[in-house]
Amino acid sequence: MAQPPDPNSPPQPWLWMDVTTSCRARSGQMNGTLRVEHSIATALSEAIAPELRFCRYDPLRRDYVPVAYAPDLGAKPVAAAPKKQRATLLSSIKPLGKKLERTIRTSVRGAAAPLFQKVSGREGLPPLAHAGASEVLLLAGENWSRVDYAAVARMRRERGTKVAAVCQDFIPVVAPQFFADGEFVTQFEAYAQFLIRECDLVVSISESTSADVRAYAQRHGGVRGALEVVHLGADLVTPKAAVRPQALTDAQAKRFVISVSTIQSRKNFDLLYHLWRRLTEQGTPDLPTLVIVGQPGFGSSDLLWQIAHDPVTASSILHLPRVGDEELAWLYQHCAFTLYPSFYEGWGLPVSESLAFGKYCLASNTSSLPEAGAGLAGHLDPLDFAAWRDAVLDLIRSPAHLADHEAAIRANYRPVTWDQSARRMAEVLRGLSVAPALVGN
């Protein structure tokens, strides 16, 4: 008869978190997915350290291998080469580089694969568990492009590994019109099938995203595993020294509002541009400068060209394509309020950030944004120009109303901390580790 586990024995590792996305990051520029993977890894390390190990996908072995720790990625902007110079370099070396990369990868993979098959583990760490063990593999990065679905399915069937995936959003399936690359949408469709066919647990970051996954599964024969919602942490680490962006003039710094996001068609920055243009034309008293914080993305070129060349908004709209954490903190701390008119989101981090800094946010009433607003943000139809105009004018003309909103935020906003998020994540994942493994299913 098997002996019950000793309650006094140290916890044994059972959770493997894939940090392939972080391992492959080649710069200090932190995008949303990298930030989430890094934050989850850090929070889980602090919450259940003895039970957690990290791994990455090794394309040579076509398997997951242990790593000693999750990469510690910074969030500093990366200086880019001058545009003309960068284009010249890329145009000259890109075709050759791709061809060389393919040749080397094919040769090395064929020669080295037998050697790697004999290696058990890396950096003195134990290999991933074998069949019958209660191991859980957590995928929390760029799962739509970084995961070898066949390798994961093989682990689940041959070793009994339980597979959990964090789904940040389902937008390429729900609203593919917001993506320029049809190949990416097709790739994401394969990821969606992986979620409902091969995962024992899908962890959504919002009720809205969970509903999107559930609706998709109903149209495609159901979902194999469980669906759980785990809200990500929203407690921000404010830099010790907030710094005012140099591009912001003294006059603009006195009164401004911000909208923070990558600039793409889905984010609906067109509405803000046309709204500020109208308010500027009308000579609206005390109109704050609209500061748009974000890098250009799909569908933004025409809009940014108009903003850069429109004499009407030359002094009332400012675009800051790159800011560091210290500058972003300063903008949140000193803005009058924030704006986020996005058409569709998996969560809406800028709304949470705004509330965490005690600032009122006018956001859309779609997808997950009301969840992010926690009843303390204003929510409007992203297509209702008149409603946005009236709401902005009310905040400009009635400082008392804005002060009331900020007082309500200070009194009532209680963000989910990363510690709470990690413990909830560990709770739902631990349920997989104690469930019987169905090897070969």
Automatic annotation (TrEMBL):
Highest taxon of the lineage: Bacteria
CDD domains for the chain: GT4_MtfB-like
Glycosyl transferase family domain: residues covered: 252-372
PANTHER family: BLL6006 PROTEIN (PTHR46401:SF8), GLYCOSYLTRANSFERASE WBBK-RELATED (PTHR46401)
Name listed for the protein in its UniProt record: Glycosyltransferase family 4 protein
Organism this protein belongs to: Rhodopseudomonas telluris
